[in-house]
Amino acid sequence: MSGEVSQRRLAPESLVLYASVFIMGGCGLAYEYTRSKLASDLLGNSIEQWALVIGVMMFFMGVGSDLQKYLNDEDLLAKFISAEIALGLCGAFAPIIILDTYGRFESHFILVQYFFIASIGLLIGFELPLLTRINAGNMLKMDYIGALCGALLWVFVLPRFFTTTEMAFVLGAITLAAALVALWFFGTRVRGWRTLLASNLVALSMVAGGFLIAPRWTAHAEQALYRDRIVFSQTSKYQHVVVTESRSGGVSMFINGHLQFDSQDEFIYHENLVHPVMEIAPGRSRVLVLGGGDGLAAREVLKYSDVAELVLCDIDPAVIQMAKSQPELRRINRDAFADSRLHIVDNGALLPSDTRELLVPNQNALSTRASAKVAEVRVVNLDAIRFLEQIDGRFDVAILDFPDPNAPTLAKLYSKGFYELLRQRLSPGGLIVQQSTSPFYAKEAFLTIGRTMESAGFAATPYHDNVPSMGEWGWWIAGDKRWHTKESIAAQMGSLELTGTQTRYLTHETSRASLVFGAGQLQSESTAINTLTSGVVYSQYMRGWERYF
Length: 549
Known about the structure:
Elements: H1 11-43, H2 46-67, H3 76-104, H4 109-134, H5 139-161, H6 164-186, H7 193-223, E1 229-235, E2 240-245, E3 251-255, E4 258-262, H8 266-280, E5 286-291, H9 296-301, E6 309-313, H10 317-325, H11 327-332, E7 340-344, E8 357-361, H12 363-366, E9 376-380, H13 384-390, E10 395-401, H14 408-411, H15 416-423, E11 426-435, H16 443-455, E12 458-467, E13 471-480, H17 486-494, H18 508-513, H19 536-546
Parallel strand pairs: 5-6, 5-10, 6-9, 10-11
Antiparallel strand pairs: 1-2, 2-3, 3-4, 7-8, 8-9, 11-13, 12-13
Helix pairs in contact: 1-2, 1-3, 1-4, 1-5, 1-6, 2-4, 3-4, 3-6, 3-7, 6-7, 16-19
């Protein structure tokens, strides 16, 4: 034979080719998922990144499928195995090279990113019709089955054991192993098999070496993205979290590249977020914090001795664990989680049946008064909307400490449907407060949040302050229209006394000043509100920040 295998082949030969297509389909899709995840971690805007990466890959699959028709029918197996080796190397090394490029040569990032996306798409599109020419069996069926299995592997298995960059090397090794099995099985019927064997073994050695040094390489590449030294980095199921520490001891936390807080001034943000609503609420026995997994909002809430119960709901258990275990964060949140007794709460009302924690804080560690009561703290890892749908009882105060609406999945937490659900969970006269991005950089998004609250039955009052690390920042404080007006809320904030509460920044004067906006800052021609399906606040947010950065 001249290298290709005739259609009349033995069953074992067909099985080897089917297995190759199965692995190619699974690994090919998983490679692009890895590329999409990396782009989302670096750039944010996850839905856009996933759509673009998958779309570009499929386009180049079509290009690769068209290019292969210009090859003659000689040595098709050798050509397939060569393409498989190239795919394994590209897939394995692409994430770490892309990450390193983003840190060192950001202007070249897009070029490098889409070079690898296009290359992988070309190779996948090239291989499948090539194998169909070798064996006209059910190749497409095996490719589709492989894609499903690859997706399941990428979502449910690989993230449990490997980081994003390590996953790429694992997938590369699987691809190269499949090429090696095919080369071993067909042996001398493949022209140039010795050269291909040597190339495959070299490629496997490179991938194995890359896997071993991936943690150090990743840390080195990621450090180039941040001014200060990285002391913690973790990619969870939901997001990529980085904690840095400056030479002066300042600690910053980033989620998907976006600053969440800087310890040098975070107290300005968190005191503005927590104390106005806690001071003017008719009651504060039962408090809900949505988001706030770093424990900083909880730190402020627990300064009030009459707080009997604090329920904190953050979707990501990795952030909670980090806030409980990382020395840098424990110091800032004053051990809001660590100094407590841990219990498992068996609550069938909360689905899925994740581990939920009942934390009874140590009164000396978490209270500012010797006579303060011990507050019951329940920590729930669940999507905020699902939590509100399933939780029983009502809250006197709800503090919404979500990330900015910089992705469609986050925009739903600023929607009319969400606010309507939240309003049903408030006790009579209860109040909510939400961090609402910058009224300067993202003015239209900020104003849309207030309009959306109003449309859900709230009376909402805006206020703002300057947080040096974040710039001009804004919040909305709101209560059910049956019990409050925006004027009454503003009047109470204007007369805030903060008696007996320890604050580093917030005073009666700064609270009153936060209600004052410049000419035109609260005026807009838009009347849009944000709904679960419209995503208006997301598009406004992106347009606003893109004008300045």
